Amino acid sequence: RVFLRAVNQFTSVLNHFFLDPANFELQLWNNYFHLAVAFLTHESLQLETFSQAKRSKIIKKYGDMRKEIGFKIRDMWYNLGPHKMKFIPAMVGPILEVTLVPEPELRKATIPIFFDMMQCEFNFTLSPSQQLWGLGIPSTPRPCWGRAELGWPGLAVHPCRLLEHCRKHKYLAAPGEVFALLVSSLLENLLDYRSNMHDESREKCMSCTVNVL
């Protein structure tokens, strides 16, 4: 809780002194986002891994601190304004880690950031389909990635909600839908491969490998 208060102080300082174009500090903001994500995904905050009694006790005394800092990450992202392009695609991975935390409100708040990234690229430099190259799952799972979350049901919300946002956009409706469906298909193949990579059936392993390729 003390650490969370310190991070909240950092947000205030960054917004007041290091946000305007004349004083913007890329490294400070980059460090902030990675610090906040590391805090949010820390093993000691993953309430789903605790017993019901311990979970209830922590929530009663401290609340779910992941949500508090997750909402800060969201707000700080949108505060960046024209500086957002400096963090794309580098922040795709860290934000993905946040959305893998099995907390509905946190996911609802942070998944739209992906669509915002797509809009930034569409408006300034890249085609939205090129965002796919930055949308990777880190090779080393974080403690917050519960067993269920590494399965398809846990990740399904990402392309589905992305698709909802795309369909409401005048210019991204068609290419955005193609992209969201492509991500959905790729995730399905990757997760199928991951769950069967140690299967005794050589044919099944090869089939999953071919699908990914």
UniProtKB/TrEMBL annotation:
Dedicator of cytokinesis TPR repeats region domain ranges (all copies): 1-123
Pfam families: TPR_DOCK (PF23554)
A Gene Ontology molecular function term of the record: guanyl-nucleotide exchange factor activity
GO terms for cellular component: cytoplasm; plasma membrane
GO biological process: cell migration; myoblast fusion; small GTPase-mediated signal transduction
Top-level taxon: Eukaryota
Protein name according to UniProt: DOCK5 protein
Species per Swiss-Prot/TrEMBL record: Prunella himalayana
